[in-house]
Amino acid sequence: MEKADIGLIGLAVMGENLVLNMESKGFAVAVYNRTVSKVDDFVAGGRGKGKRIIGCRSIGELAGALKAPRKVMMMVKAGQAVDDAIEQLLPALSAGDIIIDGGNSNYEDTIRRTAYVESKGLLYVGTGVSGGEEGALLGPSIMPGGSPGAWPAVKPIFQAIAAKVPDGSPCCEWVGENGAGHFVKMVHNGIEYGDMQLICEVYQIMRDVLGMTSREMHEVFAEWNEGDLGSYLIEITRDILAFEDEDGSPIVDKILDAAGQKGTGKWTGIAALNQAVPLTLITEAVFARCLSAAKDERVAAAAAYRKDARGLPMRGAAADGGMPSREAFLDALRDALYAAKIVSYAQGYALLRSAAAEYGWNLNYGGIALMWRGGCIIRSVFLGKIKEAFDAAPALPNLLLDPFFKGKILASEAGWRDVVAAAVKHAIPVPSLAAALSYFDGYRCERLPHNLLQAQRDYFGAHGYERVDRERGKFFHTNWTGRGGATAASTYNA
């Protein structure tokens, strides 16, 4: 009986499509699912019929069907299900075999699991897989990390099934130790949250300020997709806006405005807080989804706070005396979206750099951009410029300091400010566009007002402060009231 090159547990949509992708690239795949009937349905009567796919009815049978070193990929729900699967696999595998988690696991869990599996003599890989159902089947972006010794064994399979950029390079490369792969995937998902929110804010301005129809918006997004903003998310937005319901009306108008989420955006925000990295745009995108979910409260609040004329759509040129023509304002919207997108990636990469220092990961930042150029949800022409930026300056502390992105920000800044100002004037919420602009203004501000904040902290808590006329690292305390004495607090957190 033929031995399989790799095993896969979990035949949901992503698992099935990854199996078919692997088989189409010449690999034999053994499969197992906790509900065994799904194995039979897939292999004997479903999409796997007649292919080099071996159906297994137990973990032991799966392990016995694999070539050494045995490689088993889990595509199960993040959390306890992953730990349970590991415990079932360990007795069936041997030293040097490889367990792979291809789900959206929290990177801290992957750090723990890597150490645990390695303590048992096996190797562990935690890999992000992005691209959804279509990507899994035709070529996803794959971001593996974990036990470095596992990479030579899984590399041929992962790079064969990954998406390819135009020069043929696979959107898959080793990321780093323990939880690095899942951390990179988490940041990818956070940027995805940000990109989607930015597009939605621009859409609402088009709809509620410019009074545009879905068909008109479709045409604008189609045009934008051919330029610097070309990306998967702009492309699907174009398609969504043109899609009509059975009665000929735009189906997007009939979709309830209450967004869901699976948690990776929240994890990104928590990681940023833990790393003290100002991930303002992405965090606002997460909170925007939370606010959208409070639909009933928003309906009640809308009735309580009726909009006046400022909330009415602008129709034609300069309708309220302070707005430019529709064409000029659409140009400003394009610029605002592009500039804010730069900030989103700048913040995401700042978080990657901070985590790399914290956990000792040697991340290839240009390589990460390459992995994101194809197959994944945030794929765009934009990412090629990020790769070029880090290829030219691997130690670049922030994308805003790269010459190319600096030029784009400066060219877009006026339109960006006009858009945020118009949104505020017309009572349109733009939390991510505005947060991006505030971050940019804060990042390039030589002197922020936090000298006053440090004085406040010292006043009520004796936390101490540094002085501009003394060397950094030396702290002072003032007896502000005459009653506090000269003793400062024993700890200081910047």
Please give a structural write-up.
By secondary structure, the chain is an alpha/beta fold. 52% of the residues lie in helices and 7% in strands. The protein is built from 19 helices and eight strands. The protein has helices at 13-24, 36-45, 59-64, 80-89, 107-119, 132-138, 151-161, 180-208, 214-224, 232-242, 264-275, 280-293, 295-304, 326-359, 365-371, 382-392, 403-425, 431-443, 450-461, and strands spanning 6-9, 29-32, 53-55, 71-74, 98-101, 123-130, 141-146, 176-177. Strands 3-2-1-4-5-6-7-8 form an eight-stranded mixed sheet, sandwiched between helices. The longest helix is centred in the C-terminal third of the chain and has 34 residues, at 326-359. The radius of gyration is 26 Å and the shape is globular. It starts with 5 loop residues before the first strand and ends in a 33-residue tail after the last helix.
Terminal CA distance reads 64 Å
Main sheet summary: 8 strands, mixed
Low-confidence stretches: 314-320
| Structure summary, number of beta strands | 8
**Tertiary shape:** globular
Overview features:
single chain, eight-stranded mixed sheet, 52% helix
Quick recap:
The chain has 494 residues and is an alpha/beta fold. Helix content is 52%, strand content 7%.
Task: Give the topology.
Elements: E1 6-9, H1 13-24, E2 29-32, H2 36-45, E3 53-55, H3 59-64, E4 71-74, H4 80-89, E5 98-101, H5 107-119, E6 123-130, H6 132-138, E7 141-146, H7 151-161, E8 176-177, H8 180-208, H9 214-224, H10 232-242, H11 264-275, H12 280-293, H13 295-304, H14 326-359, H15 365-371, H16 382-392, H17 403-425, H18 431-443, H19 450-461
